[in-house]
Amino acid sequence: MARLLLSKATLSAQRQKLAAYQRFLPALDMKRQQLQGAIKQVEAQLQQQQQQQRQLEQRIAEQMPMLAETSIDLQGLCSVSRLRLQRRNVVGVWINELGDIEFDLVDIPLMAKPHWVAPLQQWLKEGMTLDVRQQLLQQQQIAMAAALRKVTQRVNLFDKVLIPDTRSNIRRIGIYLDDKERESVVTSKIAKNKRQAAGGL
Predict the structure, then answer these.
(1) pTM (2 decimals)?
(2) Which CATH class is domain 8-186?
(3) Which of 2, 4, 64, 121 is the most exposed place for a label (fewest CB within 10 A)?
(4) How far apart are CA 184 and CA 192, in angstroms?
(5) Which residues form a coiled coil (predicted)?
């Protein structure tokens, strides 16, 4: 660490630094709070999507007990053919959101498969869409949590290190300069008294 010069110029520079840190800290703290709020929103959306997924699974289990029948080939009924994502900036963090999703649906000949395969195909589409949304929300969560960690580290750096250190430097320089000023006043008084004493002799 560089040695602190105890001078008026250094004192002025330290005061300017302190003012800059104190201006910057509230903006950082505001960003931290906004990120915390955005993360809570994503968590709420994720819980909602997971709830919808559970409801869908329950509906399928109740209405399609025949899925336990393994002799019917259900492979490839539905698959994602195109996924379009939209980029959005949330509190300085770029995230992906689902723009559009397209599916490849296997044609179901009326006589070749049971009647319940067509509604199952639609439910598979719904389930896959929910899966994609949940994956995107989890990615958003990770990105925002990383940004929050960085901002929190910066807030702590300013609040617990830079500002206290700068205040300490200002105090130290101030005490040194006051001592020097007192010393010079005392020295000049002593010199004046000596001159007067010499002149009086």
Answers:
(1) 0.77
(2) mainly alpha
(3) 2
(4) 12
(5) 32-59
